[in-house]
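Database export, one record per block. Field names are fixed; values are copied verbatim from the stored entry.
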Amino acid sequence: MDGIGKIQRRAENFKADEIEKLVSLVESSKEILHGKFSMSLTKERKDQEWLKIAEKVSTVSGISRNVENVKKKITTLTSDVKKKATFICKDRRITGGGNSSATPLTPAEDQIVGLLSKADYEGKANL
């Protein structure tokens, strides 16, 4: 009966300054967050890093962000940027000239593309 009668509120949307801070923190901690596990890089170390990132993002706007929210946001951002970067690459390859119909990447999106490998959004080269 714990869940009955409780209304769960939606978290507030991330603001642009929070997104910029999140992306820069993930970029600076890339080796820890996305590195292979070893004797020095444990799950606890990664969890501590995510906690630090969540705390720093929370201080930007004063909205409390937990690790789950921050991880979900960076995953969603990465997925969206992959799609956008793929569309831009495909648009560049179209023959016929003219203006591009693709919208350019924002600075935060450009940082996220820097975290990805080219194969993530351009595909593999024909051999």
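Remark 1: The chain has one domain: 16-122.
Remark 2: The mean pLDDT is 87.
End of record.
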